[in-house]
Amino acid sequence: MKLVIVSGLSGSGKSIALDTLEDCGYYCIDNLPVSMLEDFIDHVMLEDKETYDKTAIGIDARNQRKKLADFPVSLAAIRAKGIECEVVFMHADENIILKRYSETRRRHPLTTEYRPLKEALEIERQMILPVEACADIVLDTSYSHYHQLRDLLRHRLGEKGKASLSVLLQSFGFKYGIPLDADFVFDARSLPNPYWAPELRGLTGRDLPVAEFLQNEPVVGDYLADIGSFIQRWAPKFESDNRSYLTIAIGCTGGQHRSVFLVETLAEQFKASHLKVIIRHRELR
Questions:
Q1: CB 218: neighbour CB atoms within 10 A?
Q2: Which CATH code is given to the segment(s) 2-158?
């Protein structure tokens, strides 16, 4: 049996995560009180294993602070019953969350007549720290739109192979910020930039003219070889340490040309390996 617990900041995409898991065959429950977790396992999941073989539960700041503080104890008790349990924690930049609430006009669960949204967010961050500390997967959704987040969750949870490491290769632009959920970040800004060729400026690293431009630069080949060797050498170490996920981010200035080409090329190189490789281009829309 498998249990996925989804938590994180309000406005970070937890509802999208639960919808996605439901599409992947999970029985989903939103906002189950932490105090009822163990009872739910004992008297619902374990008594009807066929229905609840794959279950996802959303836990957030609508719980009492003391109950959230007890979450690590409840999690340990659940795992002691032999249930495979993963905790997914989602967060986003505060300004992004403020913007999302402004656009949707939804009410944050901790706001009151005397407590503004920004203050509620800070209280929420403190309340859910015990859950975040137990997280197996931490996702920064600041720059993820609806479909990107669904695809990422499907690969990481809905279709994850139990016997292999899932490697996310992500391109990004440094001028828009470094991905906070990356395990390793590589800087490709020192490589020749196709942006300065007028005929290539409007293209991306997925386009053949840009690929040919970069393939003709020996230093780009050296860079690819170094990162490829790094992944080949260290990915098995992470896998042997029971890590299921590894995020490798490659950035250039705008996240349109060099980083995209590098991610696409590396993914192609590892296609024949046992690693499950996921591609994500943060700045391509």
A1: 8
A2: 3.40.50.300
